[in-house]
Write a sequence for this structure.
């Protein structure tokens, strides 16, 4: 049984819960989802999902509730995390915005809303390292990743800008894999499946 924690203080929590259940099933495993709104749950989780939403709200709640140090300890123990959109902003080294207290899990800086406002949200097929076929990436007021640290692997770009990165056990995306039926990124993040297995 895989214990999957979804940071649930705000954002698209149920979509990630559904995606990890489906990704686990595709991998022949069962996942129990734990919604994280207070301290004390993260230490029991094998994997963590940081949803999209509003990064100011999410980062404040993580600090206030004492969840932030637990998430840092999870990553220090080399356990996987998938952080999407606002989740990536919160996980970054710096979001260049005093209202967001970042966790420094991913050695990148991000520019919030750099791709435009809600009306400018869009979907594009993008090539992702580790996937054979393009991934349908949904961007909603997405952050721009603009300074990538030496140890960070860029997994995908859109118009020459990084939109998916891996830093050790953490995969961060500017877009929202949880808003599509395609769970290959969840499978890649948590089960390290090969391109061949993921295209079955
Ligand atoms: N722009 C939002 C923020 O800065 C993130 C948007 C999203 O998660 N879709 O928090």
């Amino acid at each position: 049984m895989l214990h999957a924690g979804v940071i649930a203080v705000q954002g698209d929590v149920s979509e990630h819960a559904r995606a990890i259940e489906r990704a686990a099933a595709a991998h022949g495993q069962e996942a129990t989802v734990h919604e994280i709104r207070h301290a004390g749950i993260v230490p029991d989780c094998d994997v963590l999902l940081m949803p999209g939403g509003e990064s100011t709200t999410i980062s404040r709640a993580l600090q206030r509730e004492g969840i932030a140090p637990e998430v840092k300890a999870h990553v220090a123990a080399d356990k996987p995390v998938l952080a999407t959109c606002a989740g990536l902003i919160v996980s970054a080294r710096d979001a260049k915005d005093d209202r967001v207290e970042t966790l420094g899990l991913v050695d990148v800086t991000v520019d919030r809303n750099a791709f435009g406002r809600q009306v400018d949200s869009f979907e594009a097929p993008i090539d992702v390292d580790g996937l054979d076929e393009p991934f349908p990436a949904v961007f909603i007021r997405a952050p721009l990743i603009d300074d990538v640290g030496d140890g960070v692997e860029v997994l995908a770009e859109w118009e020459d800008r990084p939109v998916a990165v891996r830093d050790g056990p953490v995969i961060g995306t500017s877009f929202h894999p949880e808003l599509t039926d395609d769970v290959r990124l969840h499978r890649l993040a948590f089960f390290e499946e090969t391109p061949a297995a993921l295209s079955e």
